[in-house]
Amino acid sequence: MTEPGPQEAFVHLMVAMATADGTITDKELRELGDLLRTLPVFEGFDLARLDDIARHCGELLAQEDGLDRIIANVVSAVPPRLYETAYALAVEVAASDVAASQPELRFLEMLRDGFELDRLVSGAIEHSARVRYRRL
């Protein structure tokens, strides 16, 4: 597979977040699907390609530097104005389980560094997700 385009890079990012703790939950899969079907950034995305893209992501993750490569791919494939969107996608997948695990938090830290996001911006994105996923 060639280097991913922006949408594929976003999918790699979400799959990597979902698998950061070693397992992918049904909630994470549902969230990933919902994001792909509803967000404008995925307009025109062919859902039939999802399995191939996820398989390619798995191949990357199996490599020693897999997470670093996924972040580098997102940085190179996505315009800088969409780095915050990329971070928000990862946060949404992590938040779908309500409580983020240590590996997920570490991956978010790697993303903040890779995208050179301002701490206030990343904090606002994280807070927004926490608010949306609260339970009674």
Give an account of the 3D structure.
68% of the residues lie in helices and 0% in strands. It is an all-alpha fold and 136 residues long. The protein has helices at residues 6-19, 26-38, 50-61, 66-77, 83-95, 102-115, 119-132. The radius of gyration is 14 Å and the shape is globular. 31% of the residues are buried. The chain is built from 7 helices and no strands.
Descriptive tags:
mainly alpha; 7 helices; globular
Number of strands: 0
On the 0 to 100 scale, the average pLDDT is 91
Treating each run of at least 4 consecutive H or I residues as one helix, how many helices?
7
**SS-based structural class?**
mainly alpha
Shape: globular
- Alpha carbon gap, first and last residue: 45 Å
Largest sheet: none
Say what oligomer this is: single chain
Contiguous runs where pLDDT drops below 50 for at least 5 residues: none
Query: Helix and strand succession?
Result: HHHHHHH
What proportion of the residues form beta strands (DSSP E)?
Answer: under 5%
* Estimated radius of gyration: 14 Å
What's the helical proportion of residues?
55-70%
Topology:
Layout: H1 6-19, H2 26-38, H3 50-61, H4 66-77, H5 83-95, H6 102-115, H7 119-132
Helix pairs in contact: 1-2, 1-3, 1-4, 1-5, 2-5, 3-4, 4-6, 5-6, 5-7
Short description:
This protein is an all-alpha fold and 136 residues long.
